[in-house]
Amino acid sequence: MKTVLMVAEKPSLAQSIAKILSQGSMSSHKGLNGACSVHEYTGTFAGQPVRFKMTSVCGHVMTLDFLGKYNKWDKVDPAELFSQAPTEKREANPKLNMVKFLQVEGRGCDYIVLWLDCDKEGENICFEVLDAVLPVMNKAHCGEKTVFRARFSSITDTDICNAMARLGEPDHNEALSVDARQELDLRIGCAFTRFQTKYFQGKYGDLDSSLISFGPCQTPTLGFCVERHDKIQSFKPEIYWVLQAKVNTDKDRSLLLDWDRVRVFDREIAQMFLNLTKLEKEAQVEATSKKEKAKQRPLALNTVEMLRVASSSLGMGPQHAMQTAERLYTQGYISYPRTETTHYPENFDLKGSLRQQANHPYWANVVKRLLAEGINRPRKGHDAGDHPPITPMRSATEAELDTSSPRSATTASTCRAPSPSGSGPSSSPAQGGPSSPQCVSPGFTEIMPWQSVPLEESLPTCQRGDTFPVGEVKVLEKQTSPPDYLTEAELITLMEKHGIGTDASIPVHINNICQRNYVTVESGRRLKPTNLGIVLVHGYYKIDAELVLPTIRSAVEKQLNLIAQGKADYRQVLGHTLDVFKRKFHYFVDSIAGMDELMEVSFSPLAATGKPLSRCGKCHRFMKYIQAKPSRLHCSHCDETYTLPQNGTIKLYKELRCPLDDFELVLWSSGSRGKSYPLCPYCYNHPPFRDMKKGMGCNECTHPSCQHSLSLLGIGQCVECESGVLVLDPTSGPKWKVACNKCNVVAHCFENAHRVRVSADTCNMCEAALLDVDFNKAKSPLPGDETQHVGCVFCDPVFQELVELKHAASCHPMHRGGPGRRQGRGRGRARRPPGKPNPRRPKDKMSALAAYFV
DNA sequence: GCAAGGTC
After folding, report:
1. What's the confidence (pLDDT) of residue A442?
2. Model pTM?
3. From the CA of A253, how many Å to the C1' of B5?
């Protein structure tokens, strides 16, 4: 029997499509990467009985990147990234082993049906899948067609079955347009980012961002925030005047009347109107009218709207909202949270979804009534052909959900319930006329009370000709007020409107401009640009406004669409657009002084920032420690900058010096519970030995005789990771630590020992270096009256009590127990298949060192 | 250390 391989874009879709096509009779198993499943069933294809294998990828299989040295910032001029730098397609997520997985599943298959999402990205993934799978599939006989594309517009039985009955071919042009997009984004983004970062970080010490990035999506996103900031800054309040009259409607009740001119900006005119009305004793009703206010029930929820509501109503950032939604999805509370669709398919089981909520403590009554009285069809929304709108799948109470996200879940259910869209008459909540300011029908606001129409002050019954005595008439002087900073919800709307990012990437772009310290999130989730953000955007405006305008994306996309439609040649469009941006880049580089002038106003030069910390080995003057990101040392005399490890604290290390270059050592520490090691600022940036790399501290230094080096403080191979060595932290006493110089393993040992040294001798059993430990007489935990002991941290029975190797201990031979006992009990350790020996048997110190530098 | 786009 022949086999048909079918591939969807994500595991959830593979499952639902297989379920539909197999009519529920499929057998499923997990694939080798643990993320994707394979669903198998039999059926007919092209008139013959076949076995179907339905599986999926996880989004893109491949990603684009530069080759070799073009990834090294200091080896290549960013300008070269526009044309010379070669690119390659690499596996997007090596951990998923997607190519291998596809090949295992595709080997020996006769046909392939591509069920990737029906958009340009999906079309591109089709070819990524084909590249992986075609070489291992059976060869077609005499020109028989073996590659098919299923095109579907929704995940419903009819649509999926129709797609299967009318298979087409993948569209190469659409895929090419994505290839072009990837290459443009990569080359342009990286060139500008590297140039800006290097230029400004080399000049200023307080930018406080480790990356001055640029991108066709993130930069316009920042642009929106700064545009609002500029409006606020340039706002000039205007004084205006309002005529206000009060009439007495009853003995002790009065009514404020609104002025039909609303306001005037001329004081004398206001005064004139005041004079005209001031003498009137009575006000007469000229006409009455009655208006009903209605609020339309919401559309079914898609991702972007969910993000907006999460930000504006729940105060959750888009990234956090997506994470929460994904968790609710995997826990079965809501349907797939990534969708552009706001329209329920005709055959969607609205009542079934509603029934799930029939016992919910908050809205059970409303739901039961709807079920009994019948529901309205939801409003007609947009069907993007991806997934149904985000819908609650089962009832959830706050208590049931993770305590960290009770509100999100509650509202997820509330907002997304089909009940609101199905309930109430078409003009749901209504406001009565003057005499009856009541809500005629709450409609959907019954379960979304925060959406309800606010009730206005009650008005007295009146009709034309009625008169009321005038209480008071006056002119109020007021001022126009500036707009506020952009809310996240407003920003999402702007991005969507200008086609910046997609539902999935909008949260990423917003997150980016926060993390790069271009904007901060203020109360009410308003985005306030930082000085850095403002200067960048103003600089782009000055040099080349197109770099920050929202049209930068749409203009390129227009070109790309020509490729997709087959109206333009891929190479030509790519070449032309790259050329345009290459020119822009060169102009930007030539004009960078324009942006720099703005930088100078807000930031301080390297030489004027930071505080003196350690001495330069060249001029023996103090270098300044710049704490702002990226933290580094700067010698203003030599005009040199030395980068330091990030995310930790830096201190002077007892004024000790590196024997190689005379630089004073500094001590990096990740915190009291973490690890610390000394490093030489010069060696850290310019590795002294061939077997060392940039970014290595003394705990990785192979200097044969320096007292701080790995050679002297190393004990033996790390018990957790492949390549690391456990090194004594000489500064850690009296709570001594031994830490791996590669991974995060830290062993706490010999508490209160007043001295711990690494001995030149090694252990007879495991060949690790022995430790020589000295205790004070009063505090010694050693047997008898001993205060000193030399032994192996792994094997010595006396030390066993004094060393807390934690999870590290479980895989050392001394602590592992007999054969057959389960291994790797520690946190995070995968169980090894039986019979396969532990590959990480600790080696003796010298061979550990040798292995380390291979 | 870069982009943006998929998705886990």
Report:
1. 83
2. 0.82
3. 63
